[in-house]
């Protein structure tokens, strides 16, 4: 209550804040979605490896095997997601120490996630 009065006195308008329950629900949904995407990507890689092994064992011609498996992306997806999650974790840590939750919390998370993407961009740029 004191911070709201202080904000009203200093800025002549009340601070915009997000309800903590809404924030927790949104954060939980995002974390669950990211875990599900991670599990699905691991399963996709495992199943693709098994399929390639089976194709090699059965002796399918190279032309057919090459048409089944087009050139895949390089293995930098793991690094990209690691950098994004590190940025998000740093942002969540900063948000924790800048309570109460509000519009600034969302801005901090957006900036820290963008920093993770930017680090990935710099890595990709320096790699080529």
Question: How would you characterize this protein structure?
Answer:
The protein contains five helices and no strands. With 128 residues, the protein is mainly alpha-helical. The chain has two domains: 36 residues; 55 residues, no CATH class. The radius of gyration is 23 Å and the shape is elongated.
List the helices and strands and how they pair.
Elements: H1 2-11, H2 20-58, H3 62-68, H4 76-97, H5 103-127
Helix pairs in contact: 4-5
Count up the helices.
Answer: 5
Overall number of domains: 2
* Count of individual beta strands: 0
- What form results from the Cα inertia axes? elongated
- Terminal Cα span: 54 Å
H/E topology pattern: HHHHH
Question: Which radius of gyration do the C-alpha atoms yield?
Answer: 23 Å
Mean pLDDT: 80
Quickly give the structural class: mainly alpha
- Main pleated-sheet profile: none
Share of helical residues: over 70%
User: What would you call the quaternary organization?
Assistant: single chain
Task: Classify the beta-strand content into a percent band.
Answer: under 5%
State the low-pLDDT regions, or none: 5-10
Properties at a glance:
5 helices, elongated, 128 residues, 80% helix
Summary of the model, kept short:
The protein has 128 residues and is mainly α.
